[in-house]
């Protein structure tokens, strides 16, 4: 059974424009009916789109998702190849969390040094950003 882009969008809860975007990025390859010029999607396309959405929710970028899809379709790939990609992503996420923790600490310090009664010209937050 094949379905149209509009129906696929409705089923998955994303927009047809998002599906078009994934097509342009080479993540989805629908069948095209030359007589109607409609694009049709089968069960494989639905599963692929679900994979894309779940991988995005786990923090993977579209280029990383494309790599995962290529690995999942390559006969020479193994689960270890996928695991290494996931571990690499986890390392990046941990680094980002550490950076965000530093930003949080710095912002908390700036906020705590700020007093409502001071004029804008004396604001420690503005001073910190200008220096």
Order of helices and strands: EHHEEHHHH
* Biggest sheet descriptor: 3 strands, antiparallel
Q: Helix coverage percent of residues? A: 55-70%
Q: Treating each run of at least 4 consecutive H or I residues as one helix, how many helices?
A: 6
User: What would CATH call the class of the largest domain?
Assistant: Mainly Alpha
The value of Rg in angstroms is 23 Å
- The CATH architecture of the largest domain would be Orthogonal Bundle
Give the gist of this structure:
With 131 residues, the protein is mostly helical.
Which secondary structure elements does this structure contain, and how are they paired or packed?
Layout: E1 3-4, H1 5-12, H2 16-24, E2 31-32, E3 39-41, H3 43-57, H4 62-73, H5 79-113, H6 124-130
Antiparallel strand pairs: 1-3, 2-3
Helix pairs in contact: 1-2
Provide an overview of this structure:
This protein is mainly α. The protein has 2 domains: 1-56, Multidrug-efflux Transporter Regulator, Chain: A, Domain 2 (Orthogonal Bundle); 92-131. Helix content is 66%, strand content 5%. It has a 3-stranded antiparallel β-sheet. β2 and β3 form a beta hairpin. The radius of gyration is 23 Å and the shape is elongated. The mean pLDDT is 90.
